[in-house]
Amino acid sequence: LFARPCTFFYAAQKSDQLPPPGLPEVAFCGRSNVGKSSLLNALTGQKALARVSQTPGRTRQLNFFNLAERLVLVDLPGYGYAKASKDMQRDWQGVMFDYLRGRPNLMRVMLLLDARIETKSADRAAMDLLNTAAVAFQIVLTKADDVGPVKLAARIEEAKDLARRNTAAHPLVLVTSSESGQGIDELRAEIASLAVA
Ligand code: GTP
Ligand code: MG
């Protein structure tokens, strides 16, 4: 599936601008700078598909990508970015949370947590929202290349514990790096299992 081309087809800035629900969707959700856009590029092997930036708050709209007419990948704006203005935060997060709560064809949310950083209250809030809305999500640790083995092992245990305690969470935690390619094939397999035949 991921050998096939993936193409950008839609950007939504407001809740009433979402494309009509069609193919199954998998959305990438997480704090600003956690590596959502980078992961999308690593998965598809298309380096410039989604815009990546060192400045948090790069992705400011919901970007929809069609993967071989079998699945739609959705790059979401990040949450928990302290430097964004209140108005901007409210705008992006409003449309994102509306999307997460109300999307009938949203098959799974990949909830990204930075392997280097402790889980923040904004992450817990996102998981609470997904539990409440009964939207299936899966925890994906990112940037595993940039953390030592002892700390990584502790983060994995913490993530597994979160997966056990959150009712909507998938039990399998994925450990990835867009830099080294670690866990990318495993994540591809999870996503491919949600595509239409
Ligand atoms: P927003 O769109 O602002 O919410 O950010 P994002 O979650 O899409 O993150 P993005 O992919 O833009 O990456 C943010 C920064 O993290 C960039 O400087 C990336 O190069 C870096 N980064 C992303 N993935 C990895 C990774 O696997 N390892 C390392 N070491 N750095 C990474
Ligand atoms: Mg982004």
Automatic annotation (TrEMBL):
Supply the gene name. engB
Q: What are the EngB-type G domain coordinates in residue numbering?
A: 22-197
Q: Which family does it belong to?
A: Belongs to the TRAFAC class TrmE-Era-EngA-EngB-Septin-like GTPase superfamily. EngB GTPase family.
InterPro entries assigned:
G_ENGB_dom, GTP-bd, GTP-bd_ribosome_bio_YsxC, P-loop_NTPase
Alphabetized, the UniProt keywords read:
Cell cycle, Cell division, GTP-binding, Magnesium, Metal-binding, Nucleotide-binding, Septation
Q: Which Gene3D superfamilies match?
A: P-loop containing nucleotide triphosphate hydrolases
Where do transmembrane segments lie in this chain?
Answer: none
In terms of Pfam families, this protein maps to: MMR_HSR1 (PF01926)
Name it: Probable GTP-binding protein EngB
Domain of life of the native organism: Bacteria
Q: Which organism is it from?
A: Roseomonas nitratireducens
Question: What are the leading ranks of the lineage?
Answer: Bacteria, Pseudomonadati, Pseudomonadota, Alphaproteobacteria, Acetobacterales
Which cofactor is essential here? Mg(2+)
| Entry function | Necessary for normal cell division and for the maintenance of normal septation.
